[in-house]
Amino acid sequence: MGGGLAALLVAALASGCAQDASPERDTPDRQPLQAPPAGAQEGPEAKARAERAAVVAAAKRWNLGRAPLVAPPPPAEKPVITARAGFEVDGQEDLPPVFTTIPTEDKVVFLTLDDGAEKDPEFLRMMHELKVPYTVFLTDEEIKDDYGYFRKMRDLGVTLNNHTLTHPYLPALSYEQQRREICGMQDVMEKQYGTRPVLFRPPYGNYNRDTLAAAKSCGIRYAPIWDEEVYVDHWEYREWDRSLHPGDIVLSHFRGHADWDGSMTDLARRFLDKVTAEGYAVARLEDYL
């Protein structure tokens, strides 16, 4: 009997210990372990490292010489934009300025693309994966066959701007004709993309006082043109030194194999390899206006 009673007591104690160790009998001072929420330990620095690693990987996929450089934060105080010397018109102080560079000491350039004829989905994917900003100036005659392509571009954060309805040589037109070209495109942009742009680029970079007055009447505030132009196989320069400068606006066009010996992705690769090799980042033009 004594041995049986001792065995029962040992069994009871073991049973109690097993119950205390069960996760179903937690006490206030010993809660069950839980996994931290996903991403809880990922701070801003870790997130930035991950994003940069993704860009580096994308640069390899797109056969770039190296990953594009990271642009500095947008300036807290925007630079004062005035017309470039020699590019003014009578009454310029009350009209949108025509300029080719942004006054900045940041080692950045700005990519701008005109017209809208070529609609390459690979270009959208490439620039999005590489996190490269750019600004576009659209002509209705070139985009009306596929407004949706540029809607996708807008949804990726690209600013869509005015480049007239039909891409005419504006100085040959009357004030009212110019106004129809510019304001008409404002109407198209609002209908298709929900906003009326404040940036306008005159076709061919040609304009007169009527052009800028008409643009102002349509809600335009700036008329940027360009300092360099990049093609799929070469660059062209406005300045005598044939070099990039901080704040330069670079022009290109939506073109493909039908017009050039290459694609939009070939064009982007040529542009990015050059500016990166020379120590420039690509910044968003609107961030400086």
Explain what this protein looks like in three dimensions:
The chain is an alpha/beta fold and 289 residues long. It contains eight helices and nine strands. Strands 2, 3, 4, 6, 7, 8 and 9 form a seven-stranded mixed beta sheet that branches. Strands 1-5 form a two-stranded parallel sheet. A hairpin with a 4-residue loop joins β6 (228-230) and β7. α6 (175-193) packs parallel to α7. It starts with a helix and ends in a 7-residue tail after the last strand.
Proportion of residues in β-strands:
5-15%
Number of helices: 8
- Mean pLDDT score: 89
Oligomer: single chain
The helix/strand order is HHEEHEHHEHHEEEEHE
Head-to-tail CA distance between termini: 96 Å
User: Which consecutive residue ranges, at least 5 long each, have pLDDT under 50?
Assistant: 1-33
Write out key terms for the chains shown:
alpha/beta, two-stranded parallel sheet, disordered N terminus, globular, 7-stranded mixed beta sheet, 289 residues, single chain, 12% strand
Question: In a few lines, what is going on in this structure?
Answer:
The chain is of the alpha/beta class and 289 residues long.
